Amino acid sequence: MFVCSCNAYRDSQIAEAARNGARTACEAYEALGNGPNCGGCLETADRIVEQVHAARTASHAAFKSAAD
Question: What pLDDT score was predicted for residue 66?
């Protein structure tokens, strides 16, 4: 789905930028080539970035738990 209509960024692109190290929507947008324009999408984009990092944290915790 399109998250940012100004830059035509999809949720998958934002999630990929987060998996590659972006910690905020603005960092994800910078990694994709353009910063945010109107800002109407930042809340949704931030949520996507947070979900990616939360999933990573949960995955790491599960791995650590299994290793113990």
Answer: 62
CATH code given to domain 2-67: 1.10.10.1100
Residues 14/26, Cβ–Cβ less than 8 Å: no
Q: Which amino acid is at 43?
A: E
CA distance 21 to 36: 18
pTM, two decimals, is: 0.82
Place of tokens 């994800």: 28
Domain boundaries, the chain: 2-67
Distance separating alpha carbons of residues 36 and 33, to the nearest angstrom: 10
Which ranges of the chain have pLDDT less than 50? Answer: none
